[in-house]
Amino acid sequence: xxxxxxxxxxxxxxxxxxxxxxxxxxxxxxxxxxxxxxxxxxxxxxxxxxxxxxxxxxxxxxxxxxxxxxxxxxxxxxxxxxxxxxxxxxxxxxxxxxxxxxxxxxxxxxxxxxxxxxxxxxxxxxxxxxxxxxxxxxxxxxxxxxxxxxxxxxxxxxxxxxxxxxxxxxxxxxxxxxxxxxxxxxxxxxxxxxxxxxxxxxxxxxxxxxxxxxxxxxxxxxxxxxxxxxxxxxxxxxxxxxxxxxxxxxxxxxxxxxxxxxxxxxxxxxxxxxxxxxxxxxxxxxxxxxxxxxxxxxxxxxxxxxxxxxxxxxxxxxxxxxxxxxxxxxxxxxxxxxxxxxxxxxxxxxxxxxxxxxxxxxxxxxxxxxxxxxxxxxxxxxxxxxxxxxxxxxxxxxxxxxxxxxxxxxxxxxxxxxxxxxxxx
Length: 425
Ligand code: GDP
Ligand code: IMO
Ligand code: MG
Known about the structure:
Layout: E1 3-7, H1 15-23, E2 28-31, E3 40-44, E4 47-51, E5 64-67, E6 72-73, H2 75-87, E7 96-99, E8 103-104, H3 107-119, H4 133-141, H5 156-173, H6 181-188, H7 191-195, E9 199-200, H8 202-211, E10 216-219, H9 244-248, E11 259-265, E12 268-270, H10 283-292, E13 304-306, E14 308-309, H11 310-320, E15 324-328, E16 338-347, E17 352-353, H12 361-364, E18 366-374, H13 391-404, E19 407-412, E20 420-422
Parallel strand pairs: 1-10, 1-11, 2-5, 2-10, 5-7, 6-8, 7-9, 11-15, 14-16, 15-19
Antiparallel strand pairs: 3-4, 12-13, 16-17, 16-18, 19-20
The protein binds guanosine-5'-diphosphate, 6-O-phosphoryl inosine monophosphate and magnesium ion.
The site of 6-O-phosphoryl inosine monophosphate has 24 residues, from helix 4.
């Protein structure tokens, strides 16, 4: 049973936690897109682990973890993270693998990311994580990127020199200070030895394992509404976090995928700029942020919070072909006397959109249509079975399933590993 797991909203749905839960029954966990813009949290006992590039499966000894070809990997972020993982007491040797086809995020991509963001006018800013993701993917599709495999070549440092000189033209045109090519060479020279042991042809590795019957878990980063094709363009990331990305980002056929799990927070959050129809700028929004601990795992920025949006969840169900949902953060809603579900966006002339519009301008003239439901106003974080949930919580979940399709596979009622209920997977 090979599973693709994707975020259904604007990220931070709790993918890391669910991957950690599902890794028990997997042999190999593969990251297939994104980079260190991701922040995936796993809480075990009183320890909190945040992973950015390394698959969340690393917290289970004996499981293989792969950074697939679709990822853009910043070698410095990775080295830092690998040191951290080892300091936590987990082994890497023999079970952590990086695709030689993956692209690298270099210092100049970060510089361009920051300079581009600074140059954007108010209202056009994306609110990127500043991790160089957009420029690294731009270099990849522009066919001037740097691949992980390039570090193994004898002329790697010359390539660094040439790329810095080229990037400096963009950096200075954006009004930022150029980078010193010789300093970059000094910076990148030691990296070769450090990364070499992990670099491999992951296509061969993955197919070898597939042929031997290993179970795969494909760990999506970001989410459907941040997808470069399906998200709220241009307020998106530069990759395909949707289910199709698992194939192109790891080199497996769609036929190798048995099921898709979508991770769905039972309210909505977004970090960075861009439209967010159900955003709450009032006390309810503040309550969600406080109770949910909604501060970015990568940048620490406060996340924007709002009610559950069934329009985007239904859209995510269709685009990804979600079979099962992993619904998270039910406990965060425990305090509310009333909970709301957005079922459409009403235009001023009365027309209601029930599918997500491609043209974001439309949303400026719309307001969300809500269904209100009574809250349950009791704690759910100690609950260990679906049957034991308060009736109103069950009704809330059932109504969401009715609106968005798919089945409930996993329910999460707290940050810790133990607060995960297996429902129907
Ligand atoms: P990811 O990017 O999708 O992996 O999600 P993040 O790790 O960025 O953000 C999810 C946050 O919610 C983390 O702090 C998790 O520890 C926490 N979390 C996950 N599931 C639950 C849950 O069911 N209840 C609560 N209260 N917190 C949760
Ligand atoms: P995980 O995997 C939430 C957002 C940024 C910004 C936009 C583009 O933890 O869910 P980028 O740096 O990718 O060019 O920024 O995408 N973003 C995320 N938001 N969770 C993430 O990852 C995100 N990764 C990027 O805030 O709005
Ligand atoms: Mg996150």
